[in-house]
Predict the structure.
Amino acid sequence: MVLRELPRRTVGPIPFRVAPLEQAVQAVLQAAAVVGDDHAGVPVHFANAYTVALADDDRGYASLFSSESAAVFTDGMPVAWAGRRFYPELAEEWQRVYGPDVMEGVLAGSDESGPRHYLLGGSPEVLAELQRAIAERWPTAVIAGAESPPYRPLTDDERRSQDQRIRASGAQIVWVGLGTPKQDWEVARIAASLPVVAMAVGAAFDFLAGAKSQAPRWVQRSGLEWAYRLGTEPRRLGKRYLWGNPRFVVSAWRSRPVKPPRPGSPP
């Protein structure tokens, strides 16, 4: 099943594509196999409670996810829990589709015949470690190019040069690790400019490179990964979770489907 055929349901202002992890991985690989000069690029986002909170606060940001070309997967357990409660008919399929897990699955499904990958983001040190990790764990995956862009906004000429390098590399998937929300804007821009699948995978670069530790699987499944990450980076992530979590709860509840009244019930 291709990305745009996956069921689409809303939590907060974001329409999510609902799928188990393996189905999401296969959908990305299928999309990468058909992108080209005759097919538009596809922006792929991984949204969690913080993403929902940001989108609830910024209509322009929210519009990135509502685009018909976009595919948004469930990156956090709280979103999955809300989706299962609001849309019980999809409860079994509505799983967490975590960006780092998708990146691992897609790389594992790659070989010399494709898809070709481009890495955009991270520090030069992290990017070098990431390429070494990929070469060791997935030796058949082809990394067509990699670059660590400056932290400042790029000039128009720099963006054009970056796009030219990506196009010249022959990459079909561009992995973007620039942090939320910057990476969501960038994958939307790249997909609008180039015939590629542009993936906003956040901390996946750091995790796969071994630069940061991931929460244990049981912590991820419990929905407490935010607490684990807050404990490891309190100064950087404090506002994100202390503001974002309550905002997510309110936004998700407001967006819940309203059931029609039963026949004969009072108005």
Remarks:
- The chain has a mean pLDDT of 90.
- Residues 3-209+217-253 form one domain.
- The chain has twelve helices and eight strands.
